[in-house]
Q: What sequence folds into this?
């Protein structure tokens, strides 16, 4: 099941890299590129060390059955969070993730930080960039390791294929960032978040179920039944939430007119 | 230290309702495994996960 480790890693990484790139761009534009890129580079190195340490521990010491149950449960928790956020945004109960607005807000905050020498290394810029790349990257690393080590019987090749998906996403996001030289507003982040949420919950349910001793009918083909189930559930939930979203927007509009 | 633990918990679980919903579902499946037919176990598992999401979202409506 190569696709089952490449696709979720690719989509999830895309979302996280867009968020990280927004901050790196802001720091680069407002402070200087030296501090921004150095922060991003050191964060990437820290991530590589974490992945090597935790990834190899998982691969070498934990049996696949135990791994599937534990990772399955964590993926369900992770996936339900992503799904919840995406459904709240689709229904209007939560504002859409606006990279342009985040970009502007970060710019305002950094400018408020004081006068900056564009030629000199700046510690604040370095740590802002480092923190954002490390935190967003940790989610990517987590998805790559979990999907990679459970999707395939050969855990090493599984992690390798999942890394290919993540690297591909990084490449696309960096190229888009270089071309656009601004926040990546065209990427449908909520749609990506929703798709990743569905995937994480689906695979999490499947693996945790296997770990709990559930024999899924038709083996791996049951994944499609689970995807359909969670898509239908999301549609029902969205139908239930939409009137509340409309009402909340109306109230916000009325308060805004006062 | 507690701050670090809280941050780790938030990173993985984020929402207490989802966390307890899933934890309860897993415990229920483990308990029911020996005396309930396999098809019903599957239903309990899927229902538990779905309800965890629904309960967590219902809190957002009342906010």
A:
């Amino acid at each position: 099941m190569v696709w089952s480790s490449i696709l979720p890693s690719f989509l999830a990484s895309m979302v996280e890299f867009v968020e990280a790139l927004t901050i790196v761009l802001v720091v680069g534009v407002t402070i200087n590129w030296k501090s921004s890129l150095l922060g991003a580079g050191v964060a990437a190195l820290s991530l590589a060390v974490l992945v090597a340490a935790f990834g190899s521990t998982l691969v070498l010491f934990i049996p696949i059955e135990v791994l599937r149950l534990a990772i399955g449960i964590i993926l369900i928790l992770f996936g339900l969070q992503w799904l919840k956020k995406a459904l709240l945004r689709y229904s209007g109960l939560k504002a859409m993730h606006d990279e342009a607005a985040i970009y502007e807000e970060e710019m305002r905050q950094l400018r408020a930080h004081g006068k900056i020498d564009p030629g000199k290394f700046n510690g604040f810029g370095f740590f802002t960039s480092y923190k954002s790349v490390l935190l967003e990257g940790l989610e990517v690393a987590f998805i790559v390791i979990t999907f990679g080590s459970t999707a395939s019987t050969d855990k090493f090749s599984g992690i390798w294929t999942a890394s290919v998906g993540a690297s591909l996403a990084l490449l696309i996001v960096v190229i888009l960032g270089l071309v656009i030289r601004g926040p990546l507003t065209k990427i449908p982040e909520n749609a990506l978040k929703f798709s990743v949420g569905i995937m994480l919950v689906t695979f999490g349910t499947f693996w945790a179920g296997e770990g709990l001793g559930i024999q899924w009918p038709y083996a791996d083909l049951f994944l499609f039944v689970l995807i359909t189930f969670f898509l239908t559930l999301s549609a029902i939930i969205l139908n239930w939430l939409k009137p509340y979203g409309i009402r909340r927007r109306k109230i916000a509009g009325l308060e805004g007119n006062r | 230290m507690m701050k670090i633990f809280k941050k780790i918990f938030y990173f993985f679980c984020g929402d207490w309702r989802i966390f307890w919903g899933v934890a309860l579902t897993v415990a229920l499946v483990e308990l029911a495994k020996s005396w309930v037919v396999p098809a019903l176990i599957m239903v309990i598992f899927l229902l538990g996960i779905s309800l965890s999401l629904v309960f967590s979202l219902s809190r957002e409506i009342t906010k």
